[in-house]
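Batch manifest, entry 17 of 40.
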Amino acid sequence: MRRLSAFLLASSVALPMGVTPGATAHAGPGQVVNVTRAIVPKAPECSALFTKAGDKNKPNLWEAAKQPALHKHCEHLQVALERVDAGNFVAALDHAQKADDLTPGQPGPFVLRGLAYSRWGKPKDAAAAFDKAKSLHPRALDDATVLDDYGASLVRLGKLDEARRAYRALLPRVTGPTGMCGVQTQCAAASLAYLTAGVVAMDEGTTGLEESIAILREARSKSDGELKRVATFALALALDRRGDADQAREIASDMAKARGVPAEIPPEITVRFPGLEEAYAIRAIGLETTDVPAAIEAWKQYLAGGGDKRAWAAHAKTKLGKLEKPGAKPKAK
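Output type: C-alpha cells
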C-alpha cells in the first residue's frame, strides 16, 4: 500500500493531503532550465525547437535562437511539469501562465494547467483546461499521462461517455517507451488507468461488459498489491454481471483466500469509480465467498448509496434476494 500511496500522491486522483500548494517555488535567478523532448508530448508547440539535426534530446541551438520567446515559453512549461510532479500546483500554474504570456494561443500552458488542476482535486477546472488545449491543437491530449488525467477528471464530473472515449484513446498508449511506465513493464499509474477504464466501461451496462471484462483482465495481470486485489474483485463482479457466476466465484474465492477482502477500498482508488457505491459491489462479490452476512450488508449499502439508480440495480437486488434466503452460504468449490 505504501508504493500505491506514493504514486497516488503525484497522480491525477491525488487529493491535496499533505501537500502545500500555496508554497510557490520559483526558479532561482540565473537558473538554467534544460528544455528536453520530455515536454513535447505535453506541449506540441515545443517540437519546433527539435526540428534540425543534432542531439535529439536537446533543442537545436539555431532554432532556439530564431524563436527566443518560444524557447522561454517551453522552459516555463518544463518547470511547470516538474512542479506538477512535485505536488506544487500553484507554482505549476504560475509557470504555465508565464509561458502563455510569452507565446499566447498555444496548447501547452492549458495542458499543464489541466494536469495541475486534476491532481489538485479540481476536476472542473482541469477538464476546461484540457478541452481548451484540444481546441488549440488536435493532438494536444495524445500523451498517455495527460489522457489519464483528463479521463479521471471527466469521471469525477460524471461525464462518463466522454470519459469512456478518453480511456479508449488512452489504453493503446499505456505501454511502450512513450507510455505511462517508461522502460518498466508495469507501474501503478498504468494499473490504475486500466482499472479505471474497466470500471467505467462496466457502468455503461450490458453493452459495456465485454469491453470491461477484457480491460479488467489486463488490469489484473498488469498490477500488484492493492490494485491487483481490487482489479480481481472488479473482474469477478463484471463476470457475475455477465452471468458467468461460477467463474466469478472462483476468481473471487481465490483472491479472498490469498489476500482477503478489503474492509475498505482506498479513496485514492474509489475516486476513479463512476459512483462511490461501486466499491460496495466490488467488496460484496468477494464477501459472498467468505462472509454471507457481510456480503448482504455490502449489497444493501450499494443500493442505498445510489446503486438503485444505476445500470446494475436489478443485478444487485437479485444477488441480495438470493443471499437473504434461509440457509444461504458460500458454495463449496
